[in-house]
Amino acid sequence: MSELRLRKREERERLEHELLSPAATKADQSKGREEDEEPDEYRTAFERDRDRIIHSKAFRRLKHKTQVFLNPEGDHYVTRLTHTLQVTQVGRAMAVALGLNHTLTEAICLAHDVGHSPFGHTGEDALSPYVEGDWLHASHGVRTLSLLEPLNLTAEVLDGIRAHSWRIDPPPETPEGMLCRFADRIAYLTHDVADALRAGVLEYHEIPTRALTHFGATAREWIDSMITSVIETSAREGTVTMDPEDLEVMNDLRDFMFERVYLSPSMSAEKERAIKVIRDLVEYFAAHPGEVPDSYTVPEADPLTRAIDYVAGMTDRYALRTHDRLFRPTLF
Predict the structure, then answer these.
(1) What 8-state DSSP symbol labels residue 276?
(2) Distance of CA 257 to CAs 86, 175, 223, Å?
(3) How much is the pLDDT for 67?
(4) Angle of the 45-54 helix axis to the 102-111 helix axis, nearest 10
(5) CB contact at 8 A, 206 and 267
(6) 72 partner at 20 to 30 Å CA-CA among 42, 100, 144, 171?
(7) Is the Cβ–Cβ distance between 131 and 150 less than 8 Å?
(8) Roughly how many angstroms between the first and final C-alpha of the chain, as a whole number?
């Protein structure tokens, strides 16, 4: 007799109701997809979403997109892909501990940054003048996976991508989406500090004393402290949240990072160059829409939208290579 047990989708959906917290989002209660599909024999709706995201081109491009440092030398700097994997690990750990739907959490976390342009958040600054309001990577992530590389994801995953950033209102509709918000901030604060130390932008003694005494002396201790705070406070309060004092320290650390790293004078030259590259490319392709591959946009898009879709989907190195080809003068 086989020691393996076959568990099909229906049984696993039933187990979600038995094993997950009442507040968890259950796969068989999903609001569904834009286009109806026959259910998979073995995978729940959220498992299918997770798998589609991992196999998407947009996800693969994250390996060559900036997190903080543009085109860094050295193999140990965080990229947008390694950031995404860390966010997913943090989100899953909190979801499992709280009895929330860890597969939905994984899917949201894996896809949360697929809408990022080249050169990280600098790309948002570069693209905003071309659209009404601000160009947001979260919104472009939904556009990417709904229109540009349509995966027909569930409403819950798309909502989590839309609202994973703290600046977006309304917040996520699911507790799993809220976990992605916390996981994103926990991950980027810890690894961005480590990268800033590695790059010589920060010295260890400059890290706010309150963060070191409150969360610990190392990145590993920080992650553990922050995750534990979310788990224990959420379990006590009945909603995804963090201990108020811990949240205050974490936000103070974020403010410090913006002042000393993200917006520091040492980063300004790189930022200005990245903005110029992106805007040069957008204006070139808006003037030459026929050079935009159809696979990077939608046929009915106007020339400027075609250009933005194309440039936003580029990796850092592809954007630089394309800019060199179009704008660097040749001698022969």
Answers:
(1) H
(2) 19, 27, 16
(3) 66
(4) 30
(5) no
(6) 144
(7) no
(8) 74
The confidence score (pLDDT) of residue 296 equals 87
Considering only the C-alpha atoms of the chain, give the largest distance between any 2 of them, rounded to a whole number of Å.
74
Here the tokens at position 174 are 């699911």
pLDDT tens-digit readout, 155-175 = 999 999 999 999 999 999 999
* Alpha-carbon gap, residue 180 to 238, rounded angstroms: 17
Domains of the chain: 42-321 (1.10.3210.10)
CA distance 246 to 224: 12
Please tell me the distance from the alpha carbon of residue 297 to that of residue 289, in angstroms, as a whole number.
11
Extended beta strands in the chain, E state: none
Cα 31 to chain centroid distance, Å, stands at: 23
Give the dihedral sign, CA 121/127/129/135.
negative
**Residue 102: count of CB within 10 angstroms of its CB:** 22
Q: What is the spatial distance between Cα 137 and Cα 135, in angstroms, rounded to a whole number?
A: 7
Question: Are the beta carbons of 175 and 240 closer than 8 angstroms?
Answer: yes
Separation of alpha carbons 306 and 289, rounded Å: 7
Report yes or no: 126 and 278 within 8 Å, Cβ to Cβ: yes
Matching residue, tokens 């140990």: 76
pLDDT in tens, 184-231: 999 999 988 888 888 788 899 999 999 999 999 998 999 999 999 999
Rounded distance between C-alpha atoms, residue 43 and residue 54, angstroms: 15
CB 112 within 8 A of CB 87: yes
* Its pTM surpasses 0.85: yes
Under the banding of pLDDT at 50, 70 and 90, the label for residue 112 is very high
